[in-house]
Amino acid sequence: MLKFVNTGVVFQEIPDETTLSINISNCPCHCPGCHSQYLAEDIGEPLSEDALDQLVDEYGKDITCIAFMGGDADPEYVNRLACYIHSAYPQFAVAWYSGRIRVSSLVNKADFDYIKIGPYIAHLGALKSKTTNQRLYKRQPDGTFVDITSRFWK
Questions:
Q1: What is the rounded CA–CA span in Å between residue 99 and residue 109?
Q2: From 29's CA, which of 23, 38, 50, 104 has a CA 20 to 30 Å away?
Q3: Does the model's pTM come out above 0.85?
Q4: Which residues contact 91 (CB under 8 A, 6 or more apart)?
């Protein structure tokens, strides 16, 4: 089971969304220069459907999207939670920030509205850098995904 350490309502992670960001621990990626190195530790509270229900009770009136920040230790479980959100709370978009270079074959991308992939590589920069290796994709009505990374560039 995945664990989460903290949450926050954020405006910059997903364009045009007010996002409940859920920081998941036990990250296996260990990106050099990661700004959240504490998330590599196995810490926090279990991330379950009940935990999601509690978060929605607390933040649901203030958000339009729920984003899983990490979860690469168990992508199949992240996918299960995304399905739960779409089923129980269809009003919310679901996003996943993965540090991997591609989406796991255990994941059904159609269960997500947004997917960010790519490890943090310091000299390439984060999403706001035009040289970043990271990419944010948005699912279109026809099920395809389009790269919207350029929306972060000023």
A1: 15
A2: 50
A3: yes
A4: 64
Sign, CA torsion 67/71/75/79:
negative
Chain segment 88-120, per-residue pLDDT in tens: 999 999 999 999 999 999 999 999 999 999 999
Q: Give the model confidence (pLDDT) of 29-57 as tens digits.
A: 888 878 788 898 999 999 999 999 999 99
> Which letter, b or e, does each residue of 94-123 get, where b requires 16 or more Cβ atoms within 10 Å of its Cβ?
bbbbbbeeebeeebebebbbbbbbbbbeee
Q: How far is CA 4 from the centre of its chain?
A: 12
- Residue pair 100/119 in contact (Cβ under 8 Å)? The answer is yes
Looking up tokens 């920081």 gives 23
DSSP state of 39: G
